[in-house]
Design brief:
The complex is a heterodimer.
Chain A lengths: L1 H23 L4 E4 L8 E3 L2 E4 L6 H7 L4 H7 L13 E4 L2 E3 L7 E5 L4 E5 L5 E6 L2 E2 L8 E10 L7 H9 L20 E5 L5 E3 L12 E3 L3 E2 L2 H10 L5 E5 L3 E6 L2 E6 L16 H13 L6 H10 L5 E2 L16
Parallel strand pairs in A: 6-15, 9-13, 12-14
Antiparallel strand pairs in A: 1-8, 2-5, 3-4, 6-7, 7-8, 10-11, 10-15, 11-12, 16-17, 17-18
Helix pairs in contact in A: 2-3
Chain B lengths: L1 H68 L3
The chains are: A alpha+beta, B mainly alpha.
């Protein structure tokens, strides 16, 4: 009897968590930024429970997390059929990308976009899909030059030829608002010719957070709607590729390491090495921060994109995604 | 009375020998059964490993198909 009550209680709690998650799904995540310029770790790890019929992709969508991100954070769960009742890690904790906190910053290595609204101490962050091996999203600095609702899509010849090889006849134009238009309902045109930040159609809406586009930056439909409303023409856009990020929170040192997903047919980058991470840590060590090398090595080995405290004084436990820990 | 005293140890010896033979035969039988069980278990393990490999390959195929279908 006690057990059944416990189960009922846990079910109610899980349902509450789930409902909160779904309610939050209509918006990307917004975090306050500490007034201290040095603090650069936002968010927390969260957990939910797999419900009957949920795939990890359903859960990722509900909690505004990307495809590769949730799979890397839950390597022991089957992405299509996680065990009912299994604990699912929601890796909603991030080290802010290095450099100026202004406008849009897209970090290709982590498949995530950050938007710093002008005059506010907040940051909005969204998972994105980017170009794959053959269609890499370019790095560099640009800006938003146009905004468009219900953009039409004129696929270039190269994309039409690619579809033809798969036996698919792609029309020369897909009208704006068409449910099969892969640009979705909103597009932000970048100063780099031919590149957009856009939404997606329903069919591809579970593929956000992957390297699958032809170089454009693709968001969940609800996220692009939110970003579109906030961003104005002229907003600066900085596209970086930073698989290792180092951050501080209350003088505690965190390392965030991203590996490419193992099922990427042709990974875009090699997993960062210990030397790469130590190079990034060097300025902090010179400042006097003491580092726990076991934790640094673990962060490099896991490469799950979850910030790991590496301060020698770190006492908090972290969620180990590697079952050998 | 005298014949009884001889008969009893003889019977006892016969019983012990018979019982010993029966025990030996049971051990050999049990060993054979264990060998069979071991062989069947190994076959089952091989089949399970093949099924698991097939399942992994299927999942990888599904993952690749999904990735491909997400392309624009």
């Amino acid at each position: 009897m006690g057990l059944s009550r416990l189960r009922r209680g846990w079910s109610c709690f899980a349902l509450l968590v789930w409902v909160c998650g779904v309610a939050a799904s209509s918006r990307g995540e917004e975090f306050n930024i500490s007034s201290s310029r040095r603090d650069s770790v936002i968010g927390e790890l969260r957990y939910t429970m797999a419900w009957r019929g949920d795939s990890l992709l359903d859960i990722a969508r509900a909690f505004d997390i990307g495809h590769d991100q949730i799979i890397n954070a839950n390597p022991r769960l089957n992405r299509w059929l996680p065990r009912v009742g299994a604990e699912v890690v929601l890796p909603s904790m991030y080290v802010l990308p290095p450099g100026e906190r202004r406008g849009i910053v897209l970090n290709l290595a982590e498949l995530r976009l950050y938007y710093f609204p002008p005059g506010k101490k907040t940051v909005h962050t969204f998972p994105v899909s980017i170009g794959d091996y053959d269609w890499r999203t370019p790095q560099g600095t640009t800006k938003i030059i146009a905004k468009q609702v219900d953009p039409s899509w004129h696929p270039p010849k190269s994309i039409r030829e690619e579809h033809a090889e798969d036996g698919e006849d792609l029309p020369p134009m897909i009208r704006g608002g068409d449910p099969d238009n892969p640009l979705g309902h909103f597009a932000l045109r970048l100063g780099i010719p031919g590149y957009l930040i856009h939404g997606t159609d329903q069919r591809r809406s579970f593929g956000i957070g992957m390297r699958v586009s032809h170089g454009c930056i693709r968001l969940y439909p609800e996220d692009i709607e939110e970003l579109y409303a906030m961003v104005s023409i002229g907003t600066p856009v900085r596209i970086i590729d930073q698989p290792v990020k180092i951050g501080l929170r209350d003088e505690e040192l965190f390392v965030e390491v991203h590996h490419p997903l193992v099922d990427d047919e042709e990974p875009l980058f090699d997993p960062p090495t210990l030397e790469d991470v130590l190079r990034e840590l060097e300025p902090f060590v010179r400042e006097g921060h003491e580092v726990d090398m076991d934790r640094v090595e673990a962060a490099v080995r896991l490469g799950d994109g979850i910030p790991m405290s590496v301060s020698a004084s770190a006492s908090g436990e972290r969620y180990w995604t590697d079952p050998t820990f | 009375m005298r014949s009884h005293s001889i008969l009893f140890p003889s019977l006892l010896l016969t019983a012990v020998l018979a019982s010993g033979c029966a025990t030996k035969s049971s051990v050999a039988k049990a060993k054979d059964e264990a060998r069979d069980a071991h062989r069947i278990a190994e076959q089952a393990l091989t089949t399970a490993q093949e099924a698991n490999n097939r399942s992994i390959r299927t999942e990888e195929m599904v993952n690749r198909s999904f990735r491909h279908s997400m392309r624009k």
